[in-house]
Design a protein that fits this description.
mainly alpha, globular
Length: 198
């Protein structure tokens, strides 16, 4: 399974995966529920910068994460501007990007094994209701890592096209991106099957 974990030694890296995931979830929810104003866009941006600086992941990594979601920014912003006033469009896209980038902190600073263990421990009390905590934990961990992995695959496709001199365009990008995404999904499925998950 691909992982976006970046080794580090700050307090945020050492924090337990469960509480870290819960705090980041609260921050993402808070950012997502901000009103659609320029002030909210500024607050969402400031919260994102503070999160990356205080966790010592760094502004350079924040910039890489924002660049990795540039297609999401462009496509979402185009639709927002078409249907909404400029202020609402700017606020909405800023909140969406902030939520994605803040959520990425979890997988950047936590190993997948630690995420799996944290989710499994959190779901264990529901076993009395027939909940398979191990299976659900695996599904959640895969879901959390999917968006950043897809962003990395998108960057790889674009860089390969640039190296071959392919003219940038949505149509030229979508088909190769779908191919590598489906290939990744097949490999992930094979890996899960090999581990006895069906």
């Amino acid at each position: 399974m691909l992982t976006l974990y970046r080794p580090g030694t700050s307090w945020f890296y050492r924090a337990p995966a469960g509480p870290k995931a819960f705090v980041l979830l609260l921050v993402v929810l808070a950012v997502s529920l901000l009103p659609s104003t320029y002030l909210s866009a500024a607050i969402a941006g400031a919260v994102t910068v503070v999160a990356y600086v205080s966790s010592r992941v760094g502004v350079a990594e924040l910039a890489r994460q924002v660049v990795s979601v540039r297609w999401v920014i462009l496509i979402t912003f185009a639709f927002q501007v078409f249907f909404l006033p400029m202020e609402a469009a700017v606020a909405n896209i800023t909140r969406v990007v902030a939520a994605i980038v803040i959520a990425a902190l979890l997988v950047l600073t936590t190993r997948v094994a630690a995420l799996l263990d944290a989710f499994e421990r959190g779901l264990r009390p529901f076993a009395r209701f027939g909940v398979d905590s191990a299976r659900i934990a695996l599904v959640l961990a895969v879901a959390i890592t999917t968006v950043p992995v897809l962003m990395r695959l998108a960057i790889g496709v674009r860089e390969a096209q640039r190296a071959r001199g392919v003219r940038p365009g949505l149509r030229a990008f979508v088909i190769p991106f779908l191919v590598v995404s489906l290939k990744h999904a097949d490999e992930l499925g094979d890996a899960l099957t090999a581990r006895g998950v069906s």
